[in-house]
Amino acid sequence: MDERPFFTATEAGLEPHPDARSPWAADMLHGRLLAGLAAWAIERDHGDPGLQPARLTVDLYRTPPMLPTTVATSLVRSGGRVRAVDAVVHVGGVEVARASSLFLRRGEAPVLDDAPVTPGWDAPHPDAMPRAPMPNDVPFEVRQAGERGFGAPGGGARQVWLRDRRPLVAGAALTPFVRAALASDFASPLANMSSEGLVYINADMTLHLGRMPEGEWLGVGTGDRVVADGVSVAECPMYDEHGPVGWSSVCAVLNPRMPR
């Protein structure tokens, strides 16, 4: 694992590394890192071993420049079974995103019922899949199922495994919740990229987790997508090596094309 973090704590805030830039623009922070920072701060300030992070929603409503970043969290409600936490992300002193999360009390599971559940994934294990062609400076690893990766044309679900190769914040381990938040943003390009490139940029992401993912690899597959009049909404199931863990849903808006 590359030990260079995306952010280092300074008196001005979390200073971004040059590799924290977005593929949309060289002077723009990657949106997935803002989702990761929201999860990191919320878990740091309000996490509890007895509580499951069941939902994280991040609204991305302003272009974040490559400037020092701060995340402020606030406890909305902490009850016996439900804890609600909000967060606000500032970059360069300007509010660029907000997050809300729900933690649910873990308990002894009852006998399995007969209600339907998400089936297992038929994608090969990441060790059995070739590394997708990516530039050498991309700070994450992608394995795709045959030709079913980003921008694959035609029918059939796209299937990719993702693994972050660098810490998010210096001195902080990548927890399962933070890994899932970082990966959840990939639902937008995976679902929306065509063989000609990407013309939709997501303005939010919502992560639902029925259980915490295990291991470094997270699988993302395409599920439902509806697109009309320059707006696209998509939902992608997420997996670890043992099976489904939840899903990510995104709202995306028409944007000048990103080359494939």
Could you characterize what this model shows?
Helices cover 12% and strands 44% of the residues. The chain is mainly β and 260 residues long. The strands form three sheets. Strands 5, 6, 7, 8, 9, 10, 11, 12, 13, 14, 15 and 16 form a twelve-stranded antiparallel sheet that branches. Strands 1-2 form a two-stranded antiparallel ribbon. The chain is globular and about 50 Å long. It starts with 6 loop residues before the first strand and ends with a strand.
Tag the structure with descriptive keywords.
260 residues; two-stranded antiparallel ribbon; mainly beta; twelve-stranded antiparallel β-sheet
What order do the helices and strands come in, and which of them pair?
Blueprint: E1 7-10, E2 13-16, E3 21-22, E4 25-29, H1 31-46, E5 51-60, E6 69-78, E7 82-91, E8 94-105, E9 140-144, E10 159-164, H2 176-184, H3 187-192, E11 198-202, E12 204-209, E13 218-221, E14 224-228, E15 231-240, E16 243-258
Antiparallel strand pairs: 1-2, 3-4, 5-8, 5-12, 6-7, 7-8, 9-10, 10-13, 11-16, 12-16, 13-15, 14-15, 15-16
Give a quick precis of the structure.
The protein is mainly beta. It is built from 3 helices and 16 strands. Strands 5, 6, 7, 8, 9, 10, 11, 12, 13, 14, 15 and 16 form a 12-stranded antiparallel beta sheet that branches. Strands 1-2 form a two-stranded antiparallel ribbon. A two-stranded antiparallel sheet has the order 3-4.
β-strand percent reads 35-45%
End-to-end separation: 26 Å
Strand/helix succession? EEEEHEEEEEEHHEEEEEE
Put simply, the count of helices is 3
Approximate shape: globular
Give the total of beta strands. 16
Low-confidence stretches: none
**Share of residues in helices:** 10-25%
Mean pLDDT across the residues is 93
How can the largest sheet be summarized? 12 strands, antiparallel
Secondary structural class = mainly beta
Rg measurement, Å = 18 Å
